[in-house]
Amino acid sequence: DAGLLKAVIHAESGFDPHAVSRSGAKGLMQLMDETGRALGVEDPFDPEQNIDGGTRYLSELLKKYKGNEAVALAAYNAGPGRIDRLGITNDAKLYENYGLLPEETQTYVRKVLSLKKVYSYAFGA
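Given the sequence above, the corresponding structure tokens read:
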């Protein structure tokens, strides 16, 4: 979903291909070095490589969580290990357990889903 990808990039880096987070995530889709390497990303600041890797990673998470976008986004932000340890498998369980997630993750999920609506509407994504 192009609207979802634009929303993730907006939320992650503000469309800055040279962005680096406090935790060391890099590029447009803010890939951690280990994740990027696992996805074959050699240069996380190369927009094409970063978007390709980040898109594949998000796609893997969407498959893992059976299309539940909010759960996949929470896993993208907080890590799938944290989501799995909480027993969150679908969006309903995510929202039931929202308070157990870091505030950053709660804000991130809301922001990306809101931005997705804007990008999907504005650009027909």
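The chain has a mean pLDDT of 96. Try to locate this feature in the token string yourself.
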